[in-house]
Amino acid sequence: MLSKSQISFVNALHLKKNRKDQGLFLVEGIKSISEFINSKYQVDSIYCSGSSLKKFNDLSPSIKLHEISEPELKKISTLNTPQDALAIIRIPEKTPIRSESFLDKYTLILDGIQDPGNLGTIIRTADWFGFSQIVCSEDTVEAFNPKVVQASMGSLSRMAVHYVNLPSFIQELQLPVYGALLEGESVYTAKFDRPGLIVLGNEGKGISNGVIELITDTITIPKFGNAESLNVAVSASIICSEIKRRGL
Amino acid sequence: MLSKSQISFVNALHLKKNRKDQGLFLVEGIKSISEFINSKYQVDSIYCSGSSLKKFNDLSPSIKLHEISEPELKKISTLNTPQDALAIIRIPEKTPIRSESFLDKYTLILDGIQDPGNLGTIIRTADWFGFSQIVCSEDTVEAFNPKVVQASMGSLSRMAVHYVNLPSFIQELQLPVYGALLEGESVYTAKFDRPGLIVLGNEGKGISNGVIELITDTITIPKFGNAESLNVAVSASIICSEIKRRGL
Hints:
The first copy, chain A, has 248 residues and is α/β, with parallel strands linked by helices. Chain A folds into two domains: 4-90, CATH 3.30.1330.30; 99-245, SPOUT methyltransferase, trefoil knot domain (Alpha/beta knot, 3-Layer(aba) Sandwich), CATH 3.40.1280. Chain A is built from ten helices and ten strands. In chain A, the strands form two sheets. Chain A has a six-stranded parallel β-sheet with strand order 7-6-5-9-8-10. The first copy, chain A, has a four-stranded mixed β-sheet with strand order 1-4-2-3, with helices on both faces. In chain A, strand 6, helix 7 and strand 7 (160-164) form a beta-alpha-beta unit. In chain A, helix 6 (116-128) runs parallel beside helix 7 (146-152). Chain A is elongated and about 60 Å long. At the A-B interface, helix 6 and helix 10 of A face helix 6 and helix 10 of B.
């Protein structure tokens, strides 16, 4: 059974302000929840059907489990078609950024990404290609937004997503800054001769002025047809793929 | 001014059944609408603010233009944040599929894609990479779904999207069938020695059994990290990019 106060507590977490105040966020679906249980995240409680109770109890006996019906799940879910379970998970303490962790590998830098589906898809793709952290501008959509979590398909449990003042962060690192733009060196022939930062900009406005200035190498995905631009998650994916294809 | 009957006529087109009955669909945003005006599509009427009236009239004086206010646009828009204009456009007559148009190029085949954002993004990406047609299984989401149109960012105006019985279609063509699966030849080293069909499957269930049997070459995007799978629009994009990178 779901009490009124439980319903309003969970529904409050649909909103960013309350997630921040409570230090909690929501993950839905048995598969994604299991990945968070098997990660560094601390799962506080799970609302699920009776058939999933045992599975979660086996995975981690310390989690508070609440058995609820499908109609009850619909009352607290962020999804139009709720999945089988909903978990409340702690937002981890901000970990300090270690400069040395960026030295020998390529890192995705997101400058003002607004669409949660795009951020979630980028997290999922970066996880597929073996990246372990992503750095976002402060105005990038929040990683614990339910739509980001959903689109990341569990990959958020393995990806450190940092929010920083991008210009200062980039200036401090002193690494090559590869900016994805509509004009530049083809990503297929660009040298990528030293690991660095790969910057992708906002869906409509692109990379912000303060960051544009810091780009050392412009890269672009060659266009063979007529679309004016590519979706930012698609661009990120093609660049990650190309870097990995070359064994970088 | 927007009459009650206009509001209900446009809102009816939010639904697939009514789009099919009326042979009409909706496109929102000045930029996308302009691309449809400059295409083979027949734009029936446009609802927009006074400031856009002249622009559309210059583009095509034959279109019926209705000046409406922002709050009125909100009443007929399919978007949470309506754009500046909404157009009603004719769904074109089905063009017969010409087998010879598949012979000398690669074509994307979509088997049961459900998410409209994914289909729209695939149309946009295919347009970027110079593909001119996409073939979908009959259970793939409808190309005139407002979310598909939105995600395609105008590219739908240039892309022929066919819906067919996939197994019969594939069998008739007698071309290589490259199936994107979680296991197979790496897309980076796959031969692609003859143009053919590139098949991508449903978001959850993958390629259907009737189509799996017809695959001649399995291809896969190598995994370097931990995500279980890639988003289907991301997979399609990486494969299109790789084919074009090699000049195929």
